[in-house]
TrEMBL record:
GO terms for molecular function: G protein-coupled receptor activity. InterPro entries: GPCR_3, GPCR_3_9-Cys_dom, GPCR_3_9-Cys_sf, GPCR_3_C, GPCR_3_CS, GPCR_3_mGluR4, GPCR_3_mtglu_rcpt, mGluR. SUPFAM superfamilies: Periplasmic binding protein-like I. This is G-protein coupled receptors family 3 profile domain-containing protein. The keyword Nucleotidyltransferase does not apply. Residues 1-29 are annotated as: Disordered.
Length: 480
């Protein structure tokens, strides 16, 4: 028997490569058999490669008993010759946990720890404590930065600027009144009540600095005391004055006897009684809830932990704030009611009309304040908006009172001293009669020139003055 393609006998072939073969096949390779009598496999290894010019299969190796691979001839995505990983799942990056594929324990998906979670172990993420946030790598937690309203912040610069102007203007008015303390205008405006009112205006401006200062126990205590005290001083004084004007003219319509408690000492006693209610409420507040600071981590707890901040502030809730200002607002509303009741009194005798305009404007300011203050309670900028709104509202209220009630007087004192002269004394009944005549003449003198009405009023006042011998009161062009 001979081998195919050869004249040599079959026994010249070898099995399993035991001896060097003496016959080669048509491919030029030795003809051999393994121990099972099978010819060994011979393979060419191709890779489908794409180049700029063509796309084709290229030989990158072969198999003849063992692998012969030309690694440098291999090409992968985008021409990268480096070997791609051949694994079920690649290792997870820092801050990611492994989520094992069900039924395939050696394979997993990588999930990033989101929000305020950090990587606690290879397979779990855990939530950071409330006052902390995950670090940049999400391998642990770090404290959330604490912020407060800074003096250089735009939210603080504007209120401070207004307050400084107001303090300077108020100090100027106080100095002017002190230097001209015995002049008719200062005396007629009620020196004692004027100084109380100016003190309240000064405190309304000064509270801005306490609201922006770094919170601590001392600052929080002063905030509680002075937050509503400035308004209380102002509106208690204005309420006492408007109530006095109302009582005088109401009493004058019934009797020639002056009403009780209209002396300066009585007015001061009434004013400080009203103020003492505010102070009593503050002391009760101190006893029930001593002042302290808190760090509010919920106010600026954003979805992105890197933007989260803790806000350092006094432990004063919105309800406590409204209760602190509520009494002053009650005084303001009551004062407005009396200002409306006394709006018919002629301005020749008192400050009813300037007080009325002051209270109307102040009410508008605080009506605008309430929706802005409470409408921003869910805003991330809540601390800035509410503090700025509150301080500006207090400063505007003080500015309205200062501008409408005292600037005209200061103008006359400084630039028209010839008008700052004593007026003759009038009887109580003459003043009230003149006020009544003003209303009547105003109704029947609609088509008359102003001069005729004024002349008739003056004649009526002269008649009443000469026929009445009662207690006299001083008056000027500005107040009773």
């Amino acid at each position: 028997m001979r081998r195919f393609g050869s004249a040599e006998p079959l026994e010249s072939l070898t099995l399993g490569g035991a001896s060097k073969p003496r016959t080669r096949g048509s491919a030029g390779t030795p003809v051999v058999f393994n121990e099972n009598g099978d010819a060994p496999g011979r393979y060419d290894i191709f890779q489908y490669q794409s180049t700029n010019k063509s796309t084709e299969y290229r030989v990158i190796g072969s198999w003849t008993n063992r692998l012969h691979l030309k690694v440098e001839a291999m090409r992968w995505k985008r021409g990268d010759p480096s070997l791609p990983p051949s694994v079920c799942s690649i290792p997870c990056r820092t801050g990611e946990r492994k989520k094992v594929v069900k039924g395939v324990p050696c394979c997993w998906h990588c999930e990033r720890c989101e929000g305020y979670h950090y990587q606690a172990s290879e397979f779990t993420c855990e939530l950071c404590p409330y006052e902390m946030r995950p670090d940049v790598n999400r391998t642990g937690c770090v404290p959330i930065p604490i912020i407060k309203l800074e003096w250089h912040s735009p939210w603080a610069v504007f209120p401070v600027f207004i307050s400084m102007l107001g303090i300077i203007a108020t100090s100027f008015v106080i100095v002017t009144f002190v230097r001209h303390n015995d002049t008719p205008i200062v005396r007629a405006s009620g020196r004692e009540m004027s100084y109380v009112l100016l003190t309240g205006i000064f405190l309304c401006y000064a509270i801005t600095f306490l609201m922006i200062a770094t919170p601590d126990v001392g600052v929080c205590s002063l905030r509680r005391i002075f937050l509503g005290l400035g308004m209380c001083f102002s509106y208690a004084a204005l309420l006492t004055k408007t109530n006095r004007i109302h009582r005088i003219f109401e009493q004058g319509k019934k009797s020639v006897t002056a009403p009780r408690l209209i002396s300066p000492a009585s007015q001061l006693a009434i004013t400080f009684s009203l103020i003492s209610v505010q102070l009593l409420g503050v002391f009760v507040w101190f006893a029930v809830d001593p002042p302290h600071t808190v760090v509010d981590y919920g106010e600026q707890r954003t979805q992105d932990p890197l933007s989260a901040r803790g806000v350092l502030k006094c432990d004063i809730s919105d309800l406590s704030l409204i209760c602190s200002l509520g009494y002053s607002i009650l005084l303001m509303v009551t004062c407005t009611v009396y200002a409306i009741k006394t709006r018919g009194v002629p301005e020749t005798f008192n400050e009813a009309k300037p007080i009325g305009f002051t209270m109307y404007t102040t009410c508008i300011i605080w009506l605008a304040f309430i929706p802005i203050f409470f409408g921003t309670s869910q805003s991330a900028e809540r601390m800035y908006i509410q503090t700025t709104t509150l301080t500006i509202s207090l400063s505007l209220s003080a500015s309205v009172s200062l501008g409408m009630l005292y600037m005209p007087k200061v103008y006359i004192i400084l630039f028209h001293p010839e008008q700052n002269v004593p007026k003759r004394k009038r009887s109580f009944k003459a003043i009230v009669t003149a006020a009544t005549m003003t209303g009547k003449l105003g109704q029947k003198g609609g088509d008359r020139p102003n001069g005729e009405v004024k002349t008739e009023l003056c004649e009526s006042m002269e008649t009443n003055t000469s026929s009445t011998k009662t207690t006299y009161v001083s008056y000027s062009n500005h107040a009773i």
